[in-house]
Each structure stands twice: as structure tokens, then as C-alpha cells.
Amino acid sequence: MQTAFLKLVATDIQKRFGNDLSEIAIVFNNKRPITYLKKHLSEVYGQAIWSPQFFTIQEFFRRSTDDTEASPLTQFFHLFNIHNELLVIEGKQPETLEEFYPIAEIILSDFGQLDYDLVPIEQIYLELYDNTKIDIAFQHLTQEQQEFIRQFWQSFSIAGHSGVQERFLQLWKRLPVLYSRFKEKLKAEGQTNYPTIYRDLAEGKATYQQFASSYQHILFVGFNALNKVEAKLFRQWQEEGRALFYFDADAYYLEDTMQEAGLFIRRNIFQTGLVNALGDSPNIIGNRTSTVNLYASTGKISQTKLLHDILEQHKNMEQTSAILLADENLLVPLLQSLPDVKPNITTGYPLTQSPIYGLLDLWMEVHLEISQFKRRKLSYQIIETFINHPLSMVSLADKLQIQKEIADKQLFEITLEELHFKSSLPQFFVPIENSAHLVPALILLVDDLLHSISSQDRIRQIDNNLLIETKKTLNQLLLGFETVAPLSISFQIGLIKKAIAPINSAIEGDPLEGIQIMGLLESRCLNFDNIYILGANEGILPKTSNSPTFIPNSLRSAYGLPILENQNALSAYLFYRHFQYSEGIHIFYNGLVDESSTGEESRFIKQLEFESKFQFDRKVQQQPIQFADKAQEIVIQKRGEIWKKMYEDFIVNQKKISATALTTYLQSPLQFFLKHIANIKEPPSLSQEFEMNKLGTVIHNVMEDIFLPFKGKQEFTPTRILRGQIDRIEAYVTREIGIQYQIEIKEEKDLNSLQRIMLKIACEYVKMYLEYDIDNYKSFRIIELENDTDYILPFPLQINGEEHQVSLYGIIDRVDEVVTHDDRIISRIVDYKTGGDSILFKEIDQVFAPNTENKAMVQTLFYAYVFEQKTGRKQLEPHLYVARKMREEGTLFSGKEGILTDEFLAFQKENFIKFLRAYPTRDL
Fold first, then answer.
1. What is the pTM of this model?
2. pLDDT tens-digit profile of 85-135?
3. In angstroms, how far is the first alpha carbon of the chain from the final one?
4. Does domain 287-342+509-620 have CATH number 3.40.50.300?
5. Apex CA 288: angle with CA 341 and CA 575, to 5°?
6. Does the chain have fewer CB atoms within 10 Å around its N or its C terminus?
């Protein structure tokens, strides 16, 4: 690696100042480089010295005043109150906090930017108010600057002002007064903010205007983009012989005016007149020919998975390494993907990506429903999210009980009165009657979480820090809310989310050891042997949008305020400077095109690839493709403990084998093992689509209700009598749905939306079954109906040369005799189906086989065999009532060989018995 920038700075400091650095201040843009410069100074000096004083630029300027810093929320409430005072003076109605909040953030941001760049406040806002003042107000501006302003107003004032435009014109006229009174309010309260500190210093109004004179020399290290206050003070201190500047730059982009990465340092040197203490910048990038590794991942998160594998290959290397997040939203996926390394993270772990925020956000969602809209029911998703959240600490027994009740009753909404479970957050679902109590209630929730975390064996410091910072912010909000009229709960929730969103907790390790993780902006001044840049997509690097502002680009350009091109130049510099020093350069981007990504790498990469001598090694992530012939089937061998368990269950204890269990085995022996041998049950669940088995149960029971009065009668009953049942179908189905979901239903309106859909479908299916019988038969006699107790049949099997018996078990839906219109009497076994089953099959051999092509036929033959063996009745025809198809296809099974009746049926029944004896024992 080239000699690191801070090592060069340390060497120059020793040459210039010797061993006594006690009267020297060294100033950086951020804290991170301070530790590294201290390390390099210790290496360069190799002995004890009088240390210099280290500051960030804000800490350094902060020494010019004793005023306390006003928090963003405090500034917001000051601004709100002053604005309403001005409206009253103008004879207008005061605005509510809800009305003012959306523009307050923009106003404060604009005020700050105008201060940093020393823009005349009244002048710029008057220009916004009235374009007719251009010639008078801007006589001192160049022709080009005046043209910028004229272009703006030509586009704005085409045909007079709409109501909204008029409102903004009045606001812009008011803003200079608002600005001055806002500053007066801060001063009166003994408060300040950084824009005020900066402007006061530049204009000679600071309390300690000469604070810099207490240092013999001030060294400004690694600065790039300067605002006008910094440029003015830096130049002044340089002229006084007090300031030195160390610029980290490369001739590759500094001397080429087409390179945006050098924009600000060129401006610092050639326009502001600052001198680089390190002399002329070398052309390092232009002469390098090393390899840059470029990785296109198949998704945003996949970048972190790729990085894991690469870090595994390099983790034993004795070199410095850093992961730079161009997209800082990748922090949490990155932490979840890191191999066994020691990370030091200065970006901070964001509250918004922590489990804590998930719970706070859920609480706000709950109270929007139960406190704002006064609803007394919550969706089951909210309840399940809460009980499954690790911080709610609901017991496993309570979780399982709640999930079972929701699934059994299919509760899509749950009343507050039904919520009976213990939690570490007992007030979570208690409605807030007064909107003024919202923030205190949320503070109480945070206290409960702090208490819950502190009671655990291992205190989670990151969670603790996040909660403490959240509580501080909420207390500030509470103080502000006390000064304004009552606010709606929905608005307070919106403001709370905005206020707590920036909170984060540092995850600190050793800043000089292990792998360093930071944003690109934090990497200023720092150099590493290996860098890994994540999220290097166009649209992210550089960003394609600026912060919201009321000052249009035309005026921003005229006054020299930052515009989007400035942001691009800063991003380019932060990216390019790592190509000066690092040997191992690895860049990752999302190569997948989706709604949030173009799938393209940053244009900075394309520029370097085209213009520089670096060799770009492109790698595209490929997802592994598995082909069916290579997929390995999971096989559970029927031996050892498995066979012992099967023998115990099915032979010794005669555990019953149903038709469903048989077809499960045919379709998937593994699934049969899990369900019927390992006894692993599916967890209870609630579907947004009603369960087909629940629909089937409803239909079976309704059909039983309809035919039960006819069971056991010796004489045949005319099918026309069933027409009288059609009008009663809806009542039957409604009552049965209530039974299935364990709810009292008096009429259709008591059903939820999915239950109403089930009602309509079930009614249509039952009606179809009845109409089929009416149309195709003259009369009927019911022999058996929904019998689930009497049909257990011992069935002999040969296992390892020995005969054993298992128990077959059939639930007989319906056995009847019907008289056709040509006076034939047919004995039938009827099976109702509500799914996509079919009576059609191709080859009978494919029916009696693994992965059977007609599961319904196997099941119906199974029922027929059990019934015939138990009752002695023969020649039962298997009929399948598939509501979707029976009108077109009928109910009798048929295939190439013919329809399953008479001799063909008798022959296939024998084949089925042979198959039933042979297949399940084939591996024994």
C-alpha cells in the first residue's frame, strides 16, 4: 500500500514542530481519524511528547460560545410558536402543529444552509417573494446570476398565482422576520445551534471571537467541501500565519478539471487560496495498474453473502481492512452475514432496524386502531406479531394456546376482551382515552422494556442504549407537546416516528484492529490495505436526489449554495480516494433489476474502467441450478428404531391405517413417516383463504343432516323429495360453519368475509350434489351414512416371511341403493370431494402405483373394500361426487380400459387388494 495519508501528516508535523505540540490544535471533519493520527504520531516520534489537542470542526467552533445546543425538537417547537405569533400579528389564524410540521423541517434546513454559506437572509427571501425587485436587489450580481433568477421567475409566474402559490409567497415574505425572531429566541434561552455558531464567528459576533488565538498553530486535516464560513475563517487564519491545511488529494483528479472528484480541493486551493502543507499531490491513481474486483450480486442482500465468502478467504491476512457502506441500509444484513471477525462499527446500529423499533412501531399501529379510531378488534396478524416478538416475553404455553384458538376458530379479528395472556408489557393493548396521554404511555412502554432487558442474565448494551436515547427523545417531544393545543393521535405517531428514526447505538470494537465498518463519508482521511465497498449501484453512488428545500436550483446556483452536482462531486471524491492507497479493492453492487435497482454499477466505476489503467475483474453471481435427476430423495429406512416403532404402533397396538394415510404414503413416504410414525404435527395456522378441509367437513356434515332422516328405511324414497331440502341448504350450512369455528351464528351477517365465501361455495356444492341425484335417479335408499366408528378391518400382511395383521379404517361417507330411470338397482359407495380430484385415469397400473395418478380412486376402492368385508355386501360401485366436474363427467371412474363397473370393477378390486398387500411391505 502507498504511504497512508495520515502517516504523511504525522511525518510532516514532526519535521515542522519537533517534540512540543502542546499549543497545536488538530482539527478533522469527524472523530474517526483522530485515533489513527495518534497512532501514526506515536510511530513517527517513538518517544513521549507533549500531545496536541484534537477536535472535530464542530467541537472546535463550539469553543466560541457558552450557549447550550438546542435539540432539533426544541428548535422545531420554537419555530412553531414564533410562526403562529407572526400569523396573529398579520391578522391570520394560527396554524396547527399538523399543518406546520411538513414545512418546518425544510425551513430549518434552509435557515441552516443560508447561515453556513453567509447568504443575506432578507435579500434571498425578498427575491423569492417578488421577481419585480430583481434589477434593484441584484444590481451587484453578475449578468449570469441575474439570468438564473429571471429563468426561475419566468417558469413560476406565468399566469398569476394559485391559492397555494399565494400562501407560499406570504410565507417567503414572512421568513426573514421568522429567521430573526428565531435567532433572538435561541439567544434569550441561552441556546444555539451550529449554523448560528458558524455565522456568528464569520460575522465577528461570537462570544469568544478570538478563541483560535489560544493556539500557536491550527492544523486542518483532510477537509474537502468547505462552506463559505469555513472558507472565510480558514483563509483569515492562514493569513495570520496560524493555520495549516493538509489536503488528501491525487493529481489524477485534481489537475484534470473534467474530474468532478477534484472539484472542491481545486476550489480550496485555486479560489480560496489555501496552501496544501504536503505540497503538490502525486499522480498515484493514474499510474496504478492493479486489479479491481467487481462483483454483481443477484439481489441487494446477496452482496453481503458474497462478501462473507471473500472475507473467509482473506481473514488470516495480516493487513488492515474496511467495509465501506455506500448503501447504509445494508448494515444489519452485513452483521448477520459476517464470518468470525472482530468488527468495529462507527455508523451505529440503527433503531429502525432493531427488534425494539418493530415493537414500538407495532404499539403505535395498535393505538392508531384502538385509541384513535376506537376499534375494539385487532387483526390476528397484530396479535401473532406481538406474542412472537422476543421482547414481549409471552410464555410458550400461552403462545401455543393463542395460536390454536385463532386457528380453530379462524379468528381474523380478535376483540380486546379476548386477550388473556401474561407479558412483560402488560399495558400494551390498553386503550388511551386522551390523546395527551399517548407519549407518556409510550414512555411507560420504554420503561417496561428497559426493566425487562435489565432483568435478563445478559444485559444487551446496544438495546439498552437505543431505549435510553428513545426515552430522551420522547421526553423532549412531551415537553414540546405541552405548549401546544391537543394533537391527534395519528399526527403524534407520525411525529414520533420521524423523531426516533435517526437514533442509533455505536457497536464499538478496537478502531485499530479487526475489520472496520463505516459509511463512505466516515472513511475520510483513512486508508486500508483492503477495502470492500457494498451498494455501489448507480442511484446510490452517487445519490440522485437532494434534501427538500424551498430555494430552487436557479437561486441556489446564483448564491453559490450546494446543488446536486456538488453532492455528486463529494461522492466521487470519497470513492476515488480509496484507489490511491488500497491494494485489495473489492466492489459489490446489486446486478438484479427490480423496482429499487437498475442493476447497474455506479458511473464512477465505469469512468475509472474507461479512463484509468486499473484492470477490472468482473464476476457475476450465479444461483446454483438443481436438476431433478440429480436431486437426492430423502429416504427413511424401515429398520432399527424406525421399524421397531412401526411394529409397535401398527402391529402390536393396531394403530388404524386410513385411506388418507395410505395415499399419503403413496405420494410421499417421507411425509407419511413425519405424520404417522414420528407424529410431527403441523402447527396451527390461519390462512387468508379458507381451508379446503374445513369446507369439506362442512359439506360432509350438511349432507349427513339432509340424508340422516332417510337412513335405515327399508322402502325406497323418491328423489323428488330432495327438492324440499334445497331451500333449507343455507340454514344447514350456516349452522355448520358456526359449529366448525366455535362461534354463535344467528344469521349471515355474523359471518366474516371468508366465512361468507365458504357459505356461498358450500351451498352451491350441496345443491349440485342433490340436483345430480334428482336428475339421474328415481329413488334411493340409505344404507350407511358418515359412519366413523364401525369400519375397522383386520388385514393380513406377509412381513419377512411371517404373517401379521394391521387395522384398516374407513370413514364411510355414504352407501346407498338407487333406482335408475330404466329401473335398474345399483349399490353405490359415494365419496364427496371439494378439491380438484378427478374420476378420469389413463392406465390402471398407474393408479395402483407410487405417486398414483388418481388418489381419489384408490381411497374410494379402499372404502369399498372395508365396507364389503365388514358387511358382506358385494358389487358396490365406487362413485366420486366432484362438484366442479360431475355435471360434465359424471361420478363413475373411467379410463382407457373402460368404466369401473361390473366385471371390470370386480377384476380391479382384486388387483387393488394385491397392490394393498404388496406395496407397503416392499422395502421390508
1. 0.71
2. 999 999 999 888 877 887 888 999 999 999 999 999 998 888 777 643 344
3. 68
4. yes
5. 55
6. C
